[in-house]
UniProtKB/TrEMBL annotation:
GO-annotated cellular components: membrane
Residue ranges of the region described as Disordered: 1-21, 482-505
Main location: membrane
Organism: Sclerotinia sclerotiorum (strain ATCC 18683 / 1980 / Ss-1) (White mold)
Entry protein name: Major facilitator superfamily (MFS) profile domain-containing protein
Localization per Swiss-Prot or TrEMBL: Membrane
Its membrane topology: Multi-pass membrane protein
Residue ranges with Basic and acidic residues bias: 1-15, 482-492
Annotated keywords: Membrane, Transmembrane, Transmembrane helix, Transport
Transmembrane region(s): 83-102, 109-131, 137-159, 171-191, 203-223, 279-302, 314-331, 338-357, 363-386, 398-417, 429-447
InterPro entries listed in its UniProt record: MFS, MFS_trans_sf
Amino acid sequence: MSTKMDTAHDRKLDVESQLDSRMPEESLPVIDPEMERRVVRKIDKHLMPLIIGLSYLDRSNIGNAKIAGMEDDLHLDSDSYEWLLTIFYISYIVFEPLVLMWKVLPPHMWGAITVMGWALSATLQTVAFNWSGMMAARFFLGAFEASFAPGITFLLSFFYLRNELGLRCGFYLGAAPLATCFAGALAYGITSGHFHSIAAWRVLFLVEGLPAILAGVLTWFLMPDSPEKAKFLTKEELLVAQARKVRQVGTAESGRPHGIQWLEVRAALLDIKNWTTALMYFSCNVSFASLPVFLPTILAAMGYSKVNAQGLSAPPYFLAFLVVILTTWLADKYSQRGYTILVLSLIGAAGYIMLAVSSSTGVRYAGVFLAASGIFPAIGNILPWVMNNQGSESKRGTGIAILNVVGQCGPLLGTRLYPSSEGPYFKKGMWICAAFMLFNGALAMALRFRMAFENRKLDEKYGVLGGNGGDGNLAKNLKYGGRENDGPDFRSRGSALGSRGDLRPPLDLLDPESLWID
């Protein structure tokens, strides 16, 4: 074992020495574009998007379990069922700061711990025989998922440059509606069958939870800690990965992924833009949290049988997955994430308005498609917007923690909007969700113009950026803190006004003048 470790260590040192010998500080190293594309394709292939899909699969299947008999077997009324949803988000909020553990422990270790934790918690829902037992399982499920799901987004920022991050976040976050789509189809298959010794809803939890345990084991062995340590890259490709890392953090001697810079944590906490995106996430989550857990119930209330309601809950999420991928790609390509979120918010609001005003089954089902196609893609664009506008890894981790601590309060409201007494149309809940989606669009526009204003101020201070797409000048950025994210080429991405720069304003931690605008 020690021989293998020594060999890996020697390999890393050899790569770094070659990179240092080839890379003067005066300029970025020349990288063959085809070689870089090959490295990115290999990273894409090995980052296991199925993991995040399984996470959301386990969280959303309680809605399918409810109409498959869980409600009757556990003697749940409307309030007790809503508490099963609420307790998940309470623990999710409380344990959210643990997302920074991705900077403290190697990602393959922390990822495996969190995956295994929520997998076991999800599976143990199978053996809950009363409300208290199910509450305990849901609490631990939320605690472990609090670090994993947002942590994957944080981890992606270790591997991808700013203009690459949005689409990759889209694929990972798009796994949420895709997994919900799969959950609906799987629930249809399971609940339409007959089991003599075990209730169908228990089989549902078991079948959807056990694969996640295997995923936890695989995470330990297959998840890379960072691109420059990836075992699947050749020696030449590791040099490219190191050069990309220098483009991100300004030095080959970064402590990634270990260590938290507390001054940068403080800077992120003081940044009003982090709190604005957190409020946007809250608004989306009011609607997002209610849709997967209540959609089967809503469909059943529209006159479909419980089994058919399971199957009909799948197609809207598949469309949502496609829209997530399309919109994150467009937002990356045109640097217009603010307008993208506005349009998606309007689509989601329109869907909820259709659900609120119509009693027609066809119109209401069409409204479900619009609601899902607005909510999920809006979230899929909010998260990379946060990551794209943080200056360092500690600030990204803090930004994603703020986003989730505030944002996950949304489900505390969203999961209580559909009491059974207001069925079958749940008009009040639909109107509230529509209002929050409109509010989300307004916040996106306010944040966009705030970023555009700051970009113009930075153009006045440092000069307008050239056509480098926000990659920055390494020598100049080394002078201003050693990171492409923190130097004078640092601009807010998603406003496309004032410059083509990618991220937000520079932060010299010793310069109070720049503290508030990073």
